[in-house]
Amino acid sequence: MVDNVFATPLLQKPLQLGADVVVYSCTKHIDGQGRVLGGAVIGPRAWVLEVLQPFLRNTGATISPFNAWVLLKGLETFSLRVHASCRAAREVADFLAARGEVRRVWYPTRADHPQAALAASMMAQGGGTVVTCELAGGKEAAFRMMNALRLIAISNNLGDSKSLVTHPATTTHFRIGAEERERLGITDGVVRLSIGLEDVVDLRADLAQALDMCASAT
């Protein structure tokens, strides 16, 4: 079972790569505009009919008609939005990698990513809309940078038309504990950026002024 929300159904197709079941949070790129909650579970027809459909029938876990309509409308611009955000995300990743305040950057298709070749083979159309970086100053620097951002908003969401930033150690990965975060490389200096549809020049400028404030405080 593969959670393919970061790669999106446009950039990676797990069923073609051998997965049995694929899950999505449709709130992310499929709606992509912060309007509705929804999800999708995809698998072989026999599994859907024999396993998934009875479960949904007995639990009532069905989406509202309005939310379904919004998601269908979102699919009309899905490809355009994801490709645009991917292009900007790659530029943002390269920009961050050149900054002295940044210790390292994770973006799947950058040459310095440990699985860049694998990502390129499975996600030929782009590396996704999420960029992660680690600030050299740890949690203090991460919080200072995030609070200094003017265009990019603080939120745990991703795949939105608006660029968002979050601090995984105190939000998405808080409950797994410090020891497990350390094993996974999620230090207190790690910041996750979900790149939206703003002009990449404006995104770089916002990040530059925020990082400049980090540098001036050290």
Quick structural summary:
The protein is 45% helix and 14% strand. It has 218 residues and is of the alpha/beta class.
Task: Sum up the structure in keywords.
single chain, alpha/beta, Aspartate Aminotransferase, domain 2, Aspartate Aminotransferase, domain 1, 5-stranded mixed sheet, 8 strands, 45% helix, 14% strand
Distance between the termini: 45 Å
Number of strands: 8
> Overall pLDDT, averaged?
94
Query: What's the CATH superfamily of the largest domain, by name?
Result: Aspartate Aminotransferase, domain 1
The low-pLDDT segments are: none
The level 1 CATH classification of the largest domain is Alpha Beta
Account of the 3D structure:
The protein is an alpha/beta fold and 218 residues long. The protein has 2 domains: 2-75, Type I PLP-dependent aspartate aminotransferase-like (Major domain) (Aspartate Aminotransferase, domain 2, 3-Layer(aba) Sandwich); 78-217, Aspartate Aminotransferase, domain 1 (Alpha-Beta Complex), CATH 3.90.1150. Helices cover 45% and strands 14% of the residues. It contains 9 helices and 8 strands. It has helices at residues 8-11, 27-31, 45-59, 65-75, 78-97, 116-122, 138-148, 178-184, 200-217; strands at residues 2-3, 22-25, 39-42, 102-106, 130-135, 153-154, 164-166, 190-194. Strands 4-5-8-7-6 form a 5-stranded mixed sheet. It has a 3-stranded mixed sheet with strand order 1-2-3. The longest helix is centred in the middle third of the chain and has 20 residues, at 78-97.
